[in-house]
Design goal:
about 220 residues; alpha+beta; NADH Oxidase; four-stranded antiparallel β-sheet; 4 strands; binds flavin mononucleotide
Amino acid sequence: MTTGKMFTEKEAELLEEFILNRRDVRGNRFLDKAVEDEILERLIFVALNAPSVGFSQPWEFVIVKDPVIKEQIKQTFNEENNKASACFNDEKQQEYIRLKLEGIIEAPVNIAVFYKPSTGPVLGQTSMEEVGLYSVVCAIQNMWLMARALNIGMGWVSILDPEKVKKILHAPDSNKLVAYLCIGYVDKFSERPELEILHWEKRKEKEAVVFFDRYK
Ligand SMILES: Cc1cc2nc3c(=O)[nH]c(=O)nc-3n(C[C@H](O)[C@H](O)[C@H](O)COP(=O)(O)O)c2cc1C
């Protein structure tokens, strides 16, 4: 007999709905409307309740609202995005240039999420060092789902020079930037990923990625 809190099928379906309706939100969708501090508190609360290797909780968050700082971050996005377009060839490059891939200025709140490595050994992290970073990603996914449940949009920007972001935010040298998040109310939640709608990528079939017992 299982003890502890049990959920109903209806509740499980609701969780699936949050997962299926979560979207990456970019500057074309954010509204010029302040996000209440209570909302930010809830996003941080769920982040702090994410799983982490050895319960190390190796995360730190910088909540950015200052337009001057946002402009500085946008500058590194612009530089990195120009470099990024050169990675794609002709037709894809033209498509890439047209994509809106961030909402740094448009989103009223940005949150930079850092990995703070432990100074001593961490239970569970002794063989695969990267699991510390994975723990931070778990926290970010919690925030993303909670934001969606609160009808708040969130976008992940990774086209940035992490060292420049660290400098702008006065981050400790040993910290590693994991994500730069843009958060705000939106005019619309797309039903499907924008990159799918724009034919940049297709969703993979289950059969292509799931194997039984071993790879074929
Ligand atoms: C680690 C990570 C980094 C990402 N970086 C960016 C980014 O720099 N710019 C962007 O527009 N989207 C970024 N995304 C969002 C993805 O493009 C998006 O998740 C994907 O297209 C699927 O769309 P969906 O999140 O709406 O389902 C990132 C997502 C992840 C998980």
